[in-house]
Amino acid sequence: MKPSHKKIDQTLRILLKEQGTSTMLSRLSKKYKPFKVLISTILSARAKDEVTEIISKNLLKKYPTPQKLANAKKSDVINIIRKIGFYNNKSKNIINASKLLIKEFKGKVPDTLEELIKLPGVGRKVANCVLVYSFKKDAIPVDTHVHRISNRLGWVKTKTPEDTERALEKLVPKKHWQILNDTFVSHGKTICAPISPFCSKCLINKLCAKKGVKNHR
Ligand code: SF4
């Protein structure tokens, strides 16, 4: 059975109170303009936030604008982002994304999903992150944490992040969209771990269906 809006409100209110807004993107969006948030988000795929944050800072200090990054040598970019996984593809994508920003968008990061996903290295998750964190638009970025927790809570029953995004859009009132990624990512990193979640310490324990959870602490 789908959760009521009351239950969704209650769950998100508890998580927000427990963790506040504490993800890397939440921190970066307070000091970075959309271009820097976009590049940091592309770099963050399958990388630890602590590593991404330092590397993004170093990279964007040297290449703070689309113009500078578009003209960078790939080997120089690789030298800076080498500690991040998939650095070869990521360096190519961020240089080419910068070139396309200049060619098609007058050097400005667009603020629609349709335009953002035209950029190399930008899928729905990255695009939705930029919409939420930089432009404060209603969108639901679904990463591995959001996908896992939404299913465990029993809010959705989905196999892929794309399906989860669609299901959550139908289920969750729009007023919550902008905080959903931040609260679930924080919760997934601290309590609702992929393997053996800390259900005994979880403040939303009573609201959770624990679907698919076999071992928990
Ligand atoms: S009760 Fe367990 S499975 Fe449910 S959200 Fe909390 S930690 Fe995750």
Q: How do the helices and strands line up, and which of them pair or pack?
A:
Elements: H1 5-19, H2 24-31, H3 34-44, H4 49-62, H5 66-70, H6 74-81, H7 87-105, H8 113-116, H9 124-134, H10 144-153, H11 161-171, H12 177-190
Bound molecules: iron/sulfur cluster.
The site of iron/sulfur cluster has 15 residues, from helix 10.
Keywords:
217 residues, mainly alpha, Endonuclease Iii, domain 2, Endonuclease III, domain 1, 60% helix, elongated, binds iron/sulfur cluster
Low-pLDDT stretches are none
List each distinct ligand once. Answer: iron/sulfur cluster
Q: Distance between the terminal alpha carbons, to the nearest Å?
A: 26 Å
The proportion of residues forming helix, as a percent range, comes to 55-70%
In total, how many beta strands?
A: 0
CATH architecture of the largest domain: Orthogonal Bundle
The proportion of residues in beta strands is under 5%
Give the CATH superfamily of the largest domain.
Hypothetical protein, domain 2
**What is the name of the CATH topology of the largest domain?**
Endonuclease III, domain 1
Q: Helix count, per DSSP?
A: 12
Shape: elongated
Topology as a string of helices (H) and strands (E):
HHHHHHHHHHHH
Largest sheet: none
Summing up helix and strand content along with how strands pair, one would put the structural category as mainly alpha
CATH class of the largest domain: Mainly Alpha
Q: What is the mean pLDDT?
A: 95
Domain count: the total is 2
